[in-house]
Amino acid sequence: MGFSSKLISWYAKNGRELPWRNTTNPYIIWLSEIILQQTRIEQGTPYFHNFLENFPTIEDFANADEGELLKLWQGLGYYSRARNMHKAARQIQTDFDGKFPTKYEEVIKLTGIGEYTAAAIASFSSNAAYAVLDGNVFRVLSRYFAIDTPINSTAGKKQFSEIANELLDKKHPGTYNQAIMDFGAMLCKPKNPLCEECIFRMDCRAFQTNSIQSYPVKLKKKPSRNRFFAYFIVEEDGQLLMAKRNDSDIWANMYEFPMIETEEELSISALVEHNEFKFNFPSAIIEQLNGMVKQVLSHQNIYAKFYRITNPENNVLKNSNWAFYNSENLDKLAMHKLMFTFLETFKKLP
Ligand code: SF4
Fold first, then answer.
1. Which class in CATH covers the domain with range 3-214?
2. Which CATH architecture has domain 225-348?
3. Residue extents of the structural domains in the chain
4. Is 106 a catalytic residue?
5. What is the 31 CA–ligand 1 centroid distance (Å)?
6. Residue pLDDT, tens place only, 2-47
7. Fold identical between 3-214 and 225-348?
8. What is the pLDDT of residues 85-136, one digit of tens each?
9. Could you give phi then psi for residue 296, rounded to 5 degrees?
10. How far is the CA of 218 from the centre of ligand 1 (A)?
11. 145: CA distance to ligand 1 center in Å?
12. Which of 140, 142, 213 to mutate for ligand 1's pocket (most ligand atoms within 8 Å of CB)?
Protein backbone atom coordinates (compact mmCIF):
# COMPACT_ATOMS: atom_id res chain seq x y z
CA MET A 1 0.00 0.00 0.00
CA GLY A 2 1.32 3.46 -0.87
CA PHE A 3 1.69 6.46 1.43
CA SER A 4 -1.72 8.00 0.74
CA SER A 5 -3.74 4.77 0.89
CA LYS A 6 -2.09 3.84 4.19
CA LEU A 7 -2.82 7.29 5.52
CA ILE A 8 -6.45 7.27 4.43
CA SER A 9 -7.12 3.87 6.00
CA TRP A 10 -5.48 5.05 9.22
CA TYR A 11 -7.74 8.13 9.12
CA ALA A 12 -10.89 6.07 8.53
CA LYS A 13 -10.29 4.34 11.87
CA ASN A 14 -8.64 7.11 13.88
CA GLY A 15 -9.66 10.51 12.45
CA ARG A 16 -10.92 13.15 14.87
CA GLU A 17 -14.63 13.96 15.16
CA LEU A 18 -14.68 17.73 14.82
CA PRO A 19 -17.79 19.91 14.56
CA TRP A 20 -16.74 21.39 11.19
CA ARG A 21 -16.03 18.05 9.57
CA ASN A 22 -18.56 16.24 7.40
CA THR A 23 -19.64 19.41 5.71
CA THR A 24 -19.00 20.76 2.24
CA ASN A 25 -20.29 24.21 3.14
CA PRO A 26 -17.35 26.53 2.30
CA TYR A 27 -18.57 29.19 4.74
CA ILE A 28 -18.40 26.77 7.68
CA ILE A 29 -15.02 25.43 6.54
CA TRP A 30 -13.65 28.96 6.18
CA LEU A 31 -14.93 29.97 9.62
CA SER A 32 -13.28 26.98 11.28
CA GLU A 33 -10.03 27.27 9.34
CA ILE A 34 -9.48 30.95 10.13
CA ILE A 35 -10.46 30.57 13.78
CA LEU A 36 -8.06 27.65 14.16
CA GLN A 37 -5.05 29.45 12.71
CA GLN A 38 -2.59 29.89 15.60
CA THR A 39 -5.30 28.62 17.97
CA ARG A 40 -5.69 25.27 19.69
CA ILE A 41 -8.82 23.27 18.84
CA GLU A 42 -10.09 23.29 22.45
CA GLN A 43 -9.76 27.05 22.56
CA GLY A 44 -11.19 27.70 19.09
CA THR A 45 -14.23 25.39 19.22
CA PRO A 46 -16.47 27.59 21.44
CA TYR A 47 -15.63 30.58 19.20
CA PHE A 48 -16.57 28.57 16.12
CA HIS A 49 -19.99 27.70 17.60
CA ASN A 50 -20.54 31.24 18.77
CA PHE A 51 -19.75 32.77 15.39
CA LEU A 52 -21.95 30.30 13.55
CA GLU A 53 -24.81 30.95 15.93
CA ASN A 54 -24.52 34.72 15.57
CA PHE A 55 -23.85 34.67 11.83
CA PRO A 56 -25.40 31.55 10.29
CA THR A 57 -24.59 32.66 6.73
CA ILE A 58 -21.87 34.54 4.91
CA GLU A 59 -24.39 37.31 4.30
CA ASP A 60 -24.99 37.71 8.04
CA PHE A 61 -21.23 37.88 8.52
CA ALA A 62 -20.84 40.53 5.82
CA ASN A 63 -23.60 42.65 7.36
CA ALA A 64 -22.11 42.52 10.85
CA ASP A 65 -20.61 45.55 12.46
CA GLU A 66 -16.80 45.37 12.81
CA GLY A 67 -17.00 46.18 16.53
CA GLU A 68 -19.42 43.28 17.02
CA LEU A 69 -17.02 40.89 15.24
CA LEU A 70 -14.04 42.04 17.27
CA LYS A 71 -16.04 41.67 20.44
CA LEU A 72 -16.88 38.05 19.59
CA TRP A 73 -13.26 37.48 18.60
CA GLN A 74 -12.01 38.80 21.93
CA GLY A 75 -9.51 36.42 23.51
CA LEU A 76 -8.45 34.71 20.28
CA GLY A 77 -5.67 37.18 19.46
CA TYR A 78 -4.35 38.04 15.99
CA TYR A 79 -7.32 40.33 15.49
CA SER A 80 -6.41 41.08 11.89
CA ARG A 81 -7.94 37.67 11.15
CA ALA A 82 -11.39 38.93 12.17
CA ARG A 83 -11.00 42.15 10.21
CA ASN A 84 -9.82 40.28 7.11
CA MET A 85 -12.75 37.89 7.42
CA HIS A 86 -15.08 40.85 7.42
CA LYS A 87 -13.44 42.20 4.27
CA ALA A 88 -13.60 38.76 2.61
CA ALA A 89 -17.31 38.39 3.49
CA ARG A 90 -18.01 41.76 1.89
CA GLN A 91 -15.93 40.84 -1.16
CA ILE A 92 -18.09 37.73 -1.56
CA GLN A 93 -21.22 39.89 -1.54
CA THR A 94 -19.85 42.20 -4.23
CA ASP A 95 -17.64 39.97 -6.39
CA PHE A 96 -19.33 36.58 -6.07
CA ASP A 97 -22.96 37.56 -5.81
CA GLY A 98 -23.08 36.51 -2.16
CA LYS A 99 -22.12 32.90 -2.89
CA PHE A 100 -18.99 31.58 -1.19
CA PRO A 101 -16.62 30.41 -3.96
CA THR A 102 -15.21 26.88 -3.89
CA LYS A 103 -12.70 27.08 -6.76
CA TYR A 104 -9.10 27.46 -5.54
CA GLU A 105 -8.34 30.32 -7.98
CA GLU A 106 -11.34 32.27 -6.66
CA VAL A 107 -10.95 31.43 -2.98
CA ILE A 108 -7.31 32.57 -2.96
CA LYS A 109 -8.43 36.04 -4.06
CA LEU A 110 -10.32 36.60 -0.82
CA THR A 111 -8.73 38.82 1.82
CA GLY A 112 -6.89 36.91 4.54
CA ILE A 113 -6.77 33.64 2.62
CA GLY A 114 -3.39 32.17 1.79
CA GLU A 115 -2.42 29.00 -0.04
CA TYR A 116 -3.09 26.70 2.89
CA THR A 117 -6.62 27.97 3.59
CA ALA A 118 -7.51 28.11 -0.11
CA ALA A 119 -6.41 24.47 -0.52
CA ALA A 120 -8.40 23.45 2.57
CA ILE A 121 -11.59 25.22 1.46
CA ALA A 122 -11.35 24.04 -2.17
CA SER A 123 -10.52 20.42 -1.29
CA PHE A 124 -13.02 20.03 1.59
CA SER A 125 -15.89 21.78 -0.19
CA SER A 126 -15.50 20.61 -3.79
CA ASN A 127 -12.85 17.89 -3.68
CA ALA A 128 -10.44 20.03 -5.70
CA ALA A 129 -7.02 18.42 -5.94
CA TYR A 130 -4.88 20.85 -3.91
CA ALA A 131 -2.65 19.56 -1.12
CA VAL A 132 -2.68 21.48 2.15
CA LEU A 133 0.63 22.44 3.65
CA ASP A 134 0.42 23.44 7.30
CA GLY A 135 2.75 22.87 10.26
CA ASN A 136 1.52 19.28 10.63
CA VAL A 137 2.16 18.41 7.01
CA PHE A 138 5.62 20.01 6.99
CA ARG A 139 6.54 17.99 10.06
CA VAL A 140 5.27 14.65 8.74
CA LEU A 141 6.90 15.02 5.33
CA SER A 142 10.19 16.36 6.65
CA ARG A 143 10.50 13.37 9.01
CA TYR A 144 9.21 10.73 6.63
CA PHE A 145 11.64 11.76 3.89
CA ALA A 146 14.32 13.22 6.23
CA ILE A 147 14.34 16.52 4.33
CA ASP A 148 16.59 19.13 5.86
CA THR A 149 15.61 22.10 3.70
CA PRO A 150 14.26 24.72 6.17
CA ILE A 151 10.47 24.68 6.04
CA ASN A 152 10.26 28.46 6.41
CA SER A 153 12.56 29.15 3.45
CA THR A 154 11.36 29.81 -0.10
CA ALA A 155 13.17 26.73 -1.33
CA GLY A 156 11.59 24.65 1.43
CA LYS A 157 8.07 25.84 0.68
CA LYS A 158 8.53 24.97 -2.98
CA GLN A 159 10.05 21.56 -2.30
CA PHE A 160 7.45 20.53 0.27
CA SER A 161 4.61 21.82 -1.88
CA GLU A 162 5.79 19.66 -4.79
CA ILE A 163 6.06 16.56 -2.62
CA ALA A 164 2.70 17.23 -0.94
CA ASN A 165 0.98 17.55 -4.31
CA GLU A 166 2.65 14.41 -5.64
CA LEU A 167 1.48 12.39 -2.64
CA LEU A 168 -2.04 13.81 -2.70
CA ASP A 169 -4.76 11.27 -3.41
CA LYS A 170 -6.29 12.95 -6.47
CA LYS A 171 -9.55 11.03 -6.11
CA HIS A 172 -10.05 11.91 -2.45
CA PRO A 173 -8.11 15.12 -1.88
CA GLY A 174 -10.38 16.40 0.90
CA THR A 175 -10.12 13.18 2.90
CA TYR A 176 -6.39 12.91 2.25
CA ASN A 177 -5.79 16.48 3.45
CA GLN A 178 -7.77 15.93 6.63
CA ALA A 179 -5.96 12.63 7.16
CA ILE A 180 -2.44 14.04 6.96
CA MET A 181 -3.30 16.93 9.28
CA ASP A 182 -4.85 14.57 11.85
CA PHE A 183 -1.91 12.23 11.53
CA GLY A 184 0.51 15.08 12.25
CA ALA A 185 -1.55 16.32 15.19
CA MET A 186 -2.21 12.92 16.75
CA LEU A 187 0.76 10.68 15.92
CA CYS A 188 3.64 12.57 14.38
CA LYS A 189 3.43 15.20 17.12
CA PRO A 190 6.02 17.97 17.50
CA LYS A 191 7.31 16.49 20.75
CA ASN A 192 7.27 12.79 21.57
CA PRO A 193 5.77 11.43 18.33
CA LEU A 194 4.19 8.00 18.75
CA CYS A 195 6.64 6.24 16.43
CA GLU A 196 6.23 2.83 18.05
CA GLU A 197 2.62 2.65 16.93
CA CYS A 198 3.10 4.52 13.65
CA ILE A 199 1.98 2.96 10.37
CA PHE A 200 5.03 4.47 8.64
CA ARG A 201 7.76 3.43 11.05
CA MET A 202 9.31 0.94 8.60
CA ASP A 203 9.56 3.58 5.85
CA CYS A 204 10.11 6.74 7.87
CA ARG A 205 13.70 7.82 7.28
CA ALA A 206 13.95 9.93 10.41
CA PHE A 207 12.75 7.02 12.55
CA GLN A 208 14.99 4.55 10.81
CA THR A 209 18.02 6.76 11.31
CA ASN A 210 17.05 7.71 14.85
CA SER A 211 17.00 11.41 13.99
CA ILE A 212 13.38 12.46 14.54
CA GLN A 213 14.29 15.44 16.70
CA SER A 214 16.32 16.93 13.83
CA TYR A 215 13.18 17.51 11.74
CA PRO A 216 11.64 19.76 10.63
CA VAL A 217 14.51 22.19 10.09
CA LYS A 218 13.64 25.88 10.53
CA LEU A 219 15.58 29.09 9.88
CA LYS A 220 16.08 31.10 13.05
CA LYS A 221 13.60 33.92 13.53
CA LYS A 222 14.62 37.54 13.96
CA PRO A 223 14.77 38.53 17.65
CA SER A 224 11.54 39.98 18.99
CA ARG A 225 11.18 43.68 19.63
CA ASN A 226 10.38 44.80 23.19
CA ARG A 227 7.70 47.45 23.77
CA PHE A 228 6.81 48.99 27.14
CA PHE A 229 3.25 50.21 27.69
CA ALA A 230 2.27 52.30 30.71
CA TYR A 231 -1.54 52.33 31.03
CA PHE A 232 -3.40 55.01 32.97
CA ILE A 233 -6.69 54.44 34.69
CA VAL A 234 -8.71 57.59 35.05
CA GLU A 235 -12.06 57.19 36.78
CA GLU A 236 -14.71 59.87 36.99
CA ASP A 237 -18.26 59.41 38.35
CA GLY A 238 -18.33 55.66 37.67
CA GLN A 239 -16.85 56.18 34.22
CA LEU A 240 -13.47 55.10 32.91
CA LEU A 241 -11.38 56.93 30.37
CA MET A 242 -10.80 54.72 27.33
CA ALA A 243 -8.73 55.17 24.19
CA LYS A 244 -9.39 53.68 20.79
CA ARG A 245 -6.22 52.37 19.15
CA ASN A 246 -5.37 53.46 15.63
CA ASP A 247 -5.53 51.02 12.76
CA SER A 248 -1.87 50.86 11.83
CA ASP A 249 -0.53 48.84 14.74
CA ILE A 250 -1.35 45.73 16.77
CA TRP A 251 -4.87 45.57 18.22
CA ALA A 252 -6.13 47.99 15.56
CA ASN A 253 -9.31 49.87 16.51
CA MET A 254 -9.59 48.10 19.85
CA TYR A 255 -10.14 49.84 23.17
CA GLU A 256 -7.75 50.20 26.07
CA PHE A 257 -6.81 52.72 28.74
CA PRO A 258 -4.83 55.76 27.61
CA MET A 259 -1.16 54.88 27.56
CA ILE A 260 2.38 55.94 26.86
CA GLU A 261 4.69 53.66 24.96
CA THR A 262 8.44 53.66 25.53
CA GLU A 263 11.35 51.58 24.29
CA GLU A 264 12.63 50.93 27.80
CA GLU A 265 11.05 50.36 31.15
CA LEU A 266 10.54 53.68 32.96
CA SER A 267 10.54 54.15 36.70
CA ILE A 268 7.51 55.96 38.08
CA SER A 269 9.56 59.15 38.57
CA ALA A 270 10.78 59.01 34.95
CA LEU A 271 7.23 58.37 33.78
CA VAL A 272 5.79 61.49 35.42
CA GLU A 273 8.55 63.50 33.76
CA HIS A 274 7.65 62.13 30.33
CA ASN A 275 6.36 64.93 28.08
CA GLU A 276 3.19 63.09 27.10
CA PHE A 277 2.39 62.43 30.75
CA LYS A 278 2.95 66.06 31.72
CA PHE A 279 0.80 67.20 28.82
CA ASN A 280 -2.11 64.86 29.48
CA PHE A 281 -2.11 64.59 33.24
CA PRO A 282 -0.53 67.72 34.73
CA SER A 283 -0.43 67.69 38.53
CA ALA A 284 -1.94 64.20 38.68
CA ILE A 285 -1.32 61.77 41.51
CA ILE A 286 -0.09 58.45 40.18
CA GLU A 287 -0.25 55.06 41.86
CA GLN A 288 1.13 51.83 40.40
CA LEU A 289 -1.45 49.02 40.50
CA ASN A 290 0.46 45.93 39.41
CA GLY A 291 3.82 44.49 38.56
CA MET A 292 4.97 44.07 34.99
CA VAL A 293 2.72 41.94 32.77
CA LYS A 294 4.27 40.37 29.69
CA GLN A 295 2.40 39.38 26.57
CA VAL A 296 4.21 37.66 23.74
CA LEU A 297 2.99 38.40 20.22
CA SER A 298 4.57 37.37 16.97
CA HIS A 299 7.85 39.32 16.64
CA GLN A 300 7.22 41.48 19.69
CA ASN A 301 7.04 41.31 23.47
CA ILE A 302 4.69 43.67 25.22
CA TYR A 303 5.50 44.66 28.79
CA ALA A 304 2.66 46.48 30.50
CA LYS A 305 2.11 48.25 33.79
CA PHE A 306 -1.10 49.84 34.98
CA TYR A 307 -1.31 53.05 37.00
CA ARG A 308 -4.21 54.79 38.68
CA ILE A 309 -4.35 58.49 37.99
CA THR A 310 -6.28 60.81 40.28
CA ASN A 311 -6.96 64.47 40.01
CA PRO A 312 -6.11 64.86 36.33
CA GLU A 313 -6.80 68.37 35.17
CA ASN A 314 -9.43 69.07 32.60
CA ASN A 315 -7.39 68.45 29.51
CA VAL A 316 -7.60 64.66 29.60
CA LEU A 317 -9.98 64.77 26.67
CA LYS A 318 -7.63 66.70 24.44
CA ASN A 319 -6.98 63.49 22.60
CA SER A 320 -9.77 62.86 20.11
CA ASN A 321 -9.48 59.06 20.49
CA TRP A 322 -10.28 59.21 24.19
CA ALA A 323 -13.72 59.11 25.77
CA PHE A 324 -15.31 58.25 29.09
CA TYR A 325 -17.39 55.06 29.21
CA ASN A 326 -19.62 53.85 31.97
CA SER A 327 -17.64 51.09 33.68
CA GLU A 328 -20.73 48.86 33.63
CA ASN A 329 -20.76 48.98 29.81
CA LEU A 330 -17.11 48.25 29.13
CA ASP A 331 -17.89 44.69 28.14
CA LYS A 332 -19.54 46.06 24.99
CA LEU A 333 -16.19 47.40 23.76
CA ALA A 334 -13.75 45.20 21.84
CA MET A 335 -10.65 44.92 23.98
CA HIS A 336 -7.42 42.98 23.70
CA LYS A 337 -6.36 40.34 26.21
CA LEU A 338 -4.09 42.55 28.31
CA MET A 339 -7.03 44.84 28.93
CA PHE A 340 -9.76 42.41 29.74
CA THR A 341 -7.47 40.32 31.94
CA PHE A 342 -6.46 43.43 33.85
CA LEU A 343 -10.09 44.61 34.17
CA GLU A 344 -10.98 41.35 35.90
CA THR A 345 -8.36 42.14 38.57
CA PHE A 346 -9.25 45.83 38.64
CA LYS A 347 -12.87 45.07 39.60
CA LYS A 348 -11.54 43.46 42.78
CA LEU A 349 -9.25 46.36 43.72
CA PRO A 350 -10.36 48.69 46.53
S1 SF4 B 1 7.72 7.01 12.55
FE2 SF4 B 1 7.55 8.69 13.99
S3 SF4 B 1 8.53 10.41 12.97
FE4 SF4 B 1 8.12 8.88 11.40
S5 SF4 B 1 6.14 9.45 10.54
FE6 SF4 B 1 5.77 7.98 12.18
S7 SF4 B 1 5.37 9.23 13.99
FE8 SF4 B 1 6.36 10.55 12.47
1. mainly alpha
2. Alpha-Beta Complex (3.90)
3. 3-214, 225-348
4. no
5. 30
6. 899 999 999 999 999 998 988 999 999 999 999 999 889 999 999 9
7. no
8. 999 999 999 999 999 999 999 999 999 999 999 999 999 999 999 999 999 9
9. -95, 125
10. 18
11. 10
12. 140
